[in-house]
Design a protein that fits this description.
Largest sheet: 4 strands, mixed
Helix content: 40-55%
CATH topology: Sufe protein. Chain: A
Number of helices: 4
CATH architecture: Alpha-Beta Complex
CATH class: Alpha Beta
Distance between the termini: 30 Å
Length: 154
């Protein structure tokens, strides 16, 4: 695929998922994480329901730039039905991908790989990874108490 077509596809995916995000809203019950990116002001509240170590439902809300919202939307699609370990693996692969690292496991991300273009814009990496960091915190949470935090590093 020509580079300009790939860039166009990247832009279209961002626009589609940011204007009509999947799994946007709130869930009652489950593990909840609130995170913000103080660098740009993106804020996310992620709620995840788990049954027998498998993510059965997930939702997010908050406010953020188009990349932050699109990434959260794509992430929720990618992790529903996955085990906690599988979700953490996807978060690791995603983090490496948006930092420009090549990982043979990248194909596991499916449509999320369309966000690989973020690597061209280092200042937007925190925007793209905010939802994924919230996912990691939710998965790693050992109880249903809310976690609140700030994204300060990669």
């Amino acid at each position: 695929m020509a580079l300009s077509k790939l860039d166009n596809l990247y832009r279209q995916v961002i626009l589609d998922h940011s204007s009509r995000p999947h799994h946007y809203g709130e869930l009652h019950g489950g593990e909840t994480v609130d995170l913000n990116n103080p660098t740009c002001g993106d804020v996310i509240k992620l709620t995840m329901q788990v049954d027998d170590d498998r993510i059965t439902d997930i939702a997010f809300n908050g406010s953020g730039c188009s990349i932050s919202t699109a990434s959260a939307s794509l992430m929720t699609d990618a992790v529903i039905g996955k085990t906690k370990a599988e979700a953490l693996e996807l978060a690791d692969i995603f983090s490496k991908m948006v930092q420009g690292e090549v990982d043979a496991r990248q194909k596991k991300l499916g449509d999320v790989t369309l966000l690989s273009g973020v690597a061209k814009f280092p200042q937007r990496i925190k925007c793209a990874t905010l939802a994924w960091h919230a996912l990691e915190k939710a998965v790693e949470s050992e109880n249903d108490s809310a976690a609140i935090g700030h994204l300060s590093g990669h």
